[in-house]
Prior knowledge:
Number of strands: 0
Distance between the termini: 55 Å
Radius of gyration: 18 Å
Largest sheet: none
Helix content: 40-55%
Mean pLDDT: 83
Amino acid sequence: xxxxxxxxxxxxxxxxxxxxxxxxxxxxxxxxxxxxxxxxxxxxxxxxxxxxxxxxxxxxxxxxxxxxxxxxxxxxxxxxxxxxxxxxxxx
Length: 91
C-alpha cells in the first residue's frame, strides 16, 4: 500500500532551479506588461501580509486620509503587524 507524503514534504516535481526560472519568467512578464519595477512588485506582494485589521479598515473606508493605494505601493511594509500599524497611522 502506498503511503501519503508527510504534510510538510515538498511534492513538487521540478527541481529548485527550474522553479526559480519560472518565477523569473513570470516577474519579467509582469514587468513588461505592467511597467512595474521589481521593488514595486515586491511591495505589491507584501500587501498580502498586511495586518487584517488594517485591511478591514481600508475596505470599510476608515483608513487615515493620507493612506492611499499609491502610498501602500510606494513604501516597504514591515513584517510586524504592530510596526505596520505605527507606520500607516493606526497606532
